Amino acid sequence: MPKEQYRETYVGRKISHVTFNVDSPAAIQQAAHIQVITKNLYAQDGQRVPAPYGVLDRRMGTNQKDANCDTCGLGLAECVGHYGYIHLALPVFHVGYFRSIITILQTICKNCSRVMLAEPLRRAYRRKFMNPELSYLQKKNLRAAVHKKAKACTKCPNCDSLNGMVKKSPAGILKIIHDKYRTKKPTDAVVKRVLKDFHEAKESNKELTTMINSGLIVEMSPVEVLDIFRRIPDDDIPLLGMNGLTRPEHLILTRLPVPPLCIRPSVVSDIKAGTNEDDLTMKQSEILLINDVISRHIASGGKSELVQEDWDYLQLHVALYINSEMSGIPLSMQPKKPGRGLVQRLKGKQGRFRGNLSGKRVDFSSRTVISPDPNLQIQEVGVPVHVAKILTYPERVFPANLQWLRKLVCNGPDVHPGANYVQQRGLKHKKYLKYGNREKIAQELKCGDIVERHLVDGDVVLFNRQPSLHKLSIMCHRARVQPQRTFRFNECVCTPYNADFDGDEMNMHLPQTEEARAEALILMGNKSNLVTPRNGELLIAATQDFITGGYLMTQRDTFFTKDEASQLAACLLAGPDATMRIDMPPPAILKPRKLWTGKQIFSLIMKPNKKCEVKANLETKGKNYTGNKDMCVQDSYVIIRNSELLCGSMDKSTLGSGTKNSIFYILLRDWGEEYAVRGMWRLARMASYYMMNRGFSFGIIDVTPGKKLIEAKNKLLEAGYSKCDGYILEMEKGTLQCQPGCTMEETLEAVMLSELSSIRELAAKACFRELHPTNAPLIMAQSGSKGSNINISQMIACVGQQALNGKRVPNGFEDRSLPHFERHSKIPAARGFVENSFYSGLTPTEFFFHTMGGREGLVDTAVKTAETGYLQRRLVKSLEDLVLHYDMTVRNAMGEVVEFRYGSDGLDPSYMEGKDRPVDLARVLADCGALVKQLERLTLTQLVQFLRVCHHKYQRSVIEPGTAVGALAAQMTLKTFHFAGVASMNITQGVPRVKEIINASRNISTPIITAELMQPRDQEICTSKLKIKPGNVQIVSEWAVKVSAEAGRAGAWLNLALQQLARQLPAVVVKGLPQVYHTLGIEAAKSTIISEIQAVMEGHGMSVDRRHVELLAGQMTARGEVLGITRYGLARMKESVLNLASFEKTADHLFDAAYYGQTDCIEGVSESIILGVPAAIGTGVLQLLHQHPRAEPLQPRELLFDRPEFHSSIWE
Predict the structure, then answer these.
(1) Residue-by-residue DSSP string for 851-875
(2) What are the DSSP calls for 939-994, one per residue?
(3) Which residues have C-beta within 8 Å of that of residue 615, sequence separation ≥ 6?
(4) CATH fold of 365-529, please?
(5) Is 987 a residue whose pLDDT tops 60?
(6) Phi/psi-derived region of residue 1034, left when phi > 0, alpha when psi is between -120 and 50, beta in every other case
(7) How far apart are CA 426 and CA 298, in angstroms?
(8) Is 1162 exposed, middle or buried (0-12, 13-18, 19+ CB in 10 A)?
């Protein structure tokens, strides 16, 4: 049955909330269809028939295709399964509630089972617990408060009996001991009375002396605990944090539910006889066996030691059935092979929560290898015909598409475009079109039928590449069916997906309803996502060869004849521009023959004809700008006026992504996304055609150094080496001047490193002087399409110093880096300097050093990827439900406000044209000036136009309500830093620093206090000490230092000095969030988080919009304390059980929720995904209300005996 449109009529099925609690033995029995008694799996007749009343009894469902369930009579696919139960011969502790059982025992009296609180306290706490508005977190805190008070009580206020310490026994597994007389002295009468028998035994056996005190400690068996719990009065249950549905005795197992067969299937093997049973089935069989043994022992009056031993064994196996990863099991009792318990099925990446509920496999998806295709438009994706025949879309028949769909039905499933199935209106079954009379079915098509047709050109598809680190990793494209066997798309779209074509695979999904298609096209559309929400920079833009092509075309010495120019202009005629008119500009050179410059032809990309209204204006420095606007030597000052390139050559800064000065950014912001996308496509076609005809190759000849270059390099090396030898000599003599805070050894390392690094830089400069402007690697480096100056100099001149951890290669075991050098050698070659180039080849030692450097890069990247992946998961889990509402506040799923106005101005980061600002005023003014023909004073019209444009841009950049700002902030704050933080002595950088901030770590690795000097320029003041006697300084507390002033004339100025200090104090920053919070308060902590994260990002040359960082800081501090984004912080931020369980510590959260009787109201994102409810973010924020017409109020009916004559007064 194909998906219908989503209608509100399905609302009745929506799960409104989920309540957790602990089942009572009666409820377990009531839910079960059968009591499981026998340990045998199969009957003894050799027919493989499940044993009646065994764990594989067919009344609990079926796990074979050919058998039916004995309870409901349905087959494997329809029967949902039925529960059974095992009645345990003796009660055992539930491993999940073991800590809760100990807590309850510490809270109540072991004699009268009352909570050990005085009556007034008990009443006060009960009143607090009964408050219906009590949140989950408050409930936990209240229970902890009751526990703390009761635990300290040694004498019960109700029955005056003695209570001691209750704790887990260190001796056995899941044993509880009660140290009743812990507070009493050995001379106490009570203790003497208890130990009387032991002393008598000691007389006859002196070895018992050491064991006497153990007589004061009582072991509590599950039977005793069960008895105590049963006597707890109902009035005291709320004080334990439980709700009315659960009682403490339910935490001790007397009956064990047996799950249905369908969740523990047997695997029947054709090869060998017998079946492979599930771990749960085998564990239940073992439990039944031990149960049987215990029952027989009890019935026959066996030895108590035997019963106790079997009881411990039963306790262990029931615990392993629930959680198979228990620690502390004695070697004698350890199971032969570890199985999978119930908890193991739920937790972890492959468990139920993360593997099957939060993330699922989907239908209507495809995956294959990707290839580039510059002829496709930016928003198109080429789909192999093979895929198009399998993916179908359910199209409803109506008069306009009837003939077309008939044709598709006639084509059938094997011819594209065709159809696979037809669902006729009113019928339940679909007709498969591979067989049967297709012509007849086509003629019978009528309005309202549904045809599952093949994917065709123009269909809306979602395209995705993993890992999906940000929202642009899945975008919406239009399909274009092609005969090849790979997905193809324009290379301009590689950046957001981070895709390359070395064998990457990508996924494509086909949305199945009209609503889904509309939402995908508008919200996820490729055109709507040209910019990144991280800081509003362009992300989809020209890459690699397109930039090289644009750079070469716009060089000063590029000229085209009429034929060449016309041919290049004709490249623009395709797709939507196929019938476009192109107006060629007048040629730049008329004699001796007409020639057009590359800049003129390039300008056609922006404005192909006079009718085109686009007037782009841009003035910016290019990548190779040398510092003279009018006559830049490299021709790298770009001026575009009214869509005409007047000067400057195009490069990565004006064509590529990651900048706000590119042509496409100007087109997008001033003229709309359609023009920007079309401009990119024109460039892709023109540049690739130009490069194909011009030729652009990169061979070994391009990296061959000339004689001059080799001589220059040798001179540089000689000079550098002699300097280094000089430094080594100075150190050996002890005359090397040490740098501040460094030993002589460290100083030598520092000066050698800087000297050797400069050799590579100088060699690179010499290299560029020698290379011809047509050199391919040079062109690529200068245009910014691939590679850098360092790469070129390493290939041609000198590979340079190899660094490990930002230092030279260290010595190994025997005071040398490799066995090829002398011990204690300090020469450059022995510590990782590579003087050869890749062209000349490396010597063996140089090769080893080079591989060491490369290895460090690889390991670092792998570690960082894993760390940032986990960091991102934590961030997303904590921020996922933050949504901007229609009152412009940012709230979480519970409706609690995190920010009163998003980013304090309510603007969308992806629309910021300036740095964090919605309008780049200077550019708008220049743009308005360029549009006015003659020079004149600033007129009122111009001013009004300027203000109107600014206002329009501001209004456009107000963020849309319903935006999932939290998830965006989580994605944008983290982009993997692919380079290691430079390991300097005193500061943590990069991922480790971000991790410290986000975890709100108490002990950070490099604590620093930053203070500003009042007059940084005055050297004398900086060097002089404060003349204060040590006796005048007192440390009052953690956050206060008292300095008393000297008596005398200075006291008069004290007041002014103090005010000055108060003004200076906020500029003193202590690096450690908890310290800042405790000293200066929550607002200071919030602003510290923001400034610290921004500082790390800027240190790595990454700009992130402040709004994202502010939101993250807001979430961490919204509860009035600094909560790290860790499993502990998250548990204090969120109430939802399902959200917490789907993050970490799954079993603990579920057991806790059941103990407290917690209700989850399915409001957040994780919970909605788990239960298949539309989440309240984006378009799901809205709900429709139906206003029902009010019925007329009913008139009171005249009563039968309500007559005036019956109303006579009794006094008459």
Answers:
(1) HHHHHHHHHHHHHHHHHHHHHHHHH
(2) -HHHHHHHHHHHHHHHHHTBPPTT--HHHHHHHHH-----SPPP--TT---HHHHH
(3) 607, 642, 643, 930, 931
(4) Barwin-like endoglucanases (2.40.40)
(5) no
(6) beta
(7) 65
(8) buried
Q: For residue 1153, what is the enclosing H or E element? A: helix 1146-1156
Structure-token pair, residue 1192? 């007329």
**CA distances, 264 to each of 277, 326, 361 (Å):** 8, 22, 21
CA 843 to chain centre: 45
pLDDT, residue 1021, reads 47
* Tokens of residue 335, six digits: 């199971």
- Phi, psi (deg, nearest 5) at residue 1123: -110, 125
Judge if the upstream peptide bond of residue 592 is cis by omega within 30 degrees of 0: yes
CATH level 3 topology of 549-694: Enzyme I; Chain A, domain 2 (1.10.274)
Given a cut of 60, whether residue 416 has pLDDT beyond it is yes
> Where does CATH 1.10.132.30 sit in the chain?
700-842
Q: Flag the least confident range among 302-306, 402-406, 457-461, 1156-1160.
A: 302-306
CA torsion, ordered 358, 361, 366, 370, to nearest 10 deg: 50
Q: Write the secondary structure of 645-671 as one string of H (helix), E (strand) and C (coil).
A: EEECCCCHHHHCCCCCCCHHHHHHHHH
Whole-Å CA distances, 1143 to 566, 568, 932, 1149: 61, 56, 60, 10
Question: What whole-number distance in Å separates Cα of residue 540 and Cα of residue 550?
Answer: 16
Query: In 10 A of CB 525, how many CB atoms?
Result: 18
The torsion region of residue 53 among left (phi > 0), alpha (psi -120 to 50) and beta comes to: left
Reported pTM: 0.86
Pick the CATH number of 700-842 from 3.50.50.60, 3.60.21.10, 1.10.132.30, 2.60.200.30: 1.10.132.30
Mean pLDDT of the region 878-900: 92
H or E, element range at 136: helix 136-151
Q: Is 1197 left (phi over 0), alpha (psi -120 to 50) or beta?
A: beta
Q: Identify the residue whose tokens are 């008119």.
A: 581
Asked whether 61 and 290 are in contact (CB, 8 A), the reply is no
